[in-house]
Write a structure and sequence with these properties.
The protein is an alpha/beta fold. It folds into 2 domains: 238 residues, TIM Barrel; 56 residues, Alpha-Beta Plaits, CATH 3.30.70. Helices cover 32% and strands 22% of the residues. The chain is built from 11 helices and 13 strands. The strands form 3 sheets. The protein has a 9-stranded mixed beta sheet with strand order 7-1-2-8-9-10-11-12-13. A two-stranded antiparallel sheet has the order 3-6. It has a two-stranded antiparallel sheet with strand order 4-5. Strand 8, helix 5 and strand 9 form a beta-alpha-beta unit.
């Protein structure tokens, strides 16, 4: 099988300490089959490049209007208007924007380009027990590119982790698993109807893939975002704890308190944030949830 040499990412974050053990470099893939209402990286959902506009940075100089060869941008009074039907996301406007109000999110890169960044920090991985984490979005949406990167890391003896929703064909997930040292496996809701309502997809394949990964002996940390009013109720937490405790190789669990850090991103993408009134769970509630999960014999960590 010929592996794809290129893929679409939207960021490479250095010195990350929340995406697996030790000091890590996190590579953020673009594209995700889920549309979680609380997603803090909405720029990760679409596979294609997107236009990103920081309105408060814009100085209304009109440089973007002049630069747009397609006539997609116009200045109306104090407002800059972009016609989505005409814009081809070419990036010419971003190149001339001195205020850095316009950006293009997402770029196509080669395996070699990603590995060049990753290899710069090998000494920190070795000293801290860290490595590379492939995140997103959903890395499994670009399986050939992911496999090529994992193989390159294996050849360089760089430890790997993958943050995944698990929503992919089992043969795709299994094909990458031999080169993944740690899966950071996201679980949200146990009730399938609620899962569809809040993420846009069923959880049946997600749960079956998690069981299959555990059955083959893969190292897994289950990560659960705690979103008040969505999945923090006792029934969901108990069902989740029961399911994870029933797996052949019981993973540890990290419970992650919901935060609003990504809410402003929706406006930059001209999207509406679905949970504007939702607040972060209290420390007391997080401790209560941890206690419920610990009663199932699980090792629980609050945060990263």
């Amino acid at each position: 099988m010929t592996l794809s040499n290129t893929g679409v990412i939207f960021d490479i974050e250095k010195f990350s300490i929340h995406d697996g053990p030790g000091i890590r470099t996190t590579v953020f893939f673009k594209g995700c089959p889920l549309s979680c209402q609380w997603c803090h990286n909405p720029e990760s959902q679409a596979l294609e490049r997107e236009r990103w506009f920081w309105e408060r940075r814009c100085i209304r100089c009109g440089a973007c209007v002049e630069a747009c060869a397609h006539g997609a941008i116009s200045l109306s009074g104090d407002s800059i208007i972009t016609n989505d039907a005409v814009c081809v996301v070419c990036g010419d406007c971003a190149q001339v924007c001195q205020a850095e109000a316009r950006e293009i999110v997402g770029r196509r890169v080669t395996v070699a380009e990603v590995m060049a960044e990753v290899e710069k920090d090998i000494v920190f991985y070795d000293e801290s027990g860290g490595g590379v984490t492939f995140s997103g979005g959903e890395p499994l949406m670009q399986p050939d590119f992911l496999r090529a990167l994992l193989q390159s890391c294996k050849e360089k003896e760089i430890r790997t982790a993958m943050d995944t929703s698990g929503l992919a064909a089992w043969k795709t997930l299994q094909s990458v698993s031999e080169n993944v040292d740690l899966f950071l496996y996201d679980l949200k809701l146990m009730d399938d109807e609620k899962h569809r309502r809040f993420t846009g997809v069923s959880n049946k394949l997600i749960l079956s893939n998690l069981r299959a990964l555990a059955s083959q002996g893969s190292a897994i940390t289950v990560r659960v975002p705690i979103i008040p009013g969505v999945n923090d109720d006792d029934e969901n937490i108990s069902r989740l704890g029961e399911f994870v405790a029933s797996l052949p190789r019981v993973p540890s669990i990290s419970i992650l308190p919901y935060h609003t850090a990504g809410a402003d991103k929706y406006a930059r993408l001209n999207k509406t944030y679905a949970l504007p009134q939702t607040q972060s769970p209290s420390d007391e509630r997080m401790a209560e949830i941890a206690a419920v999960l610990q009663d199932f014999g699980l090792t629980v960590r609050v945060g990263g």
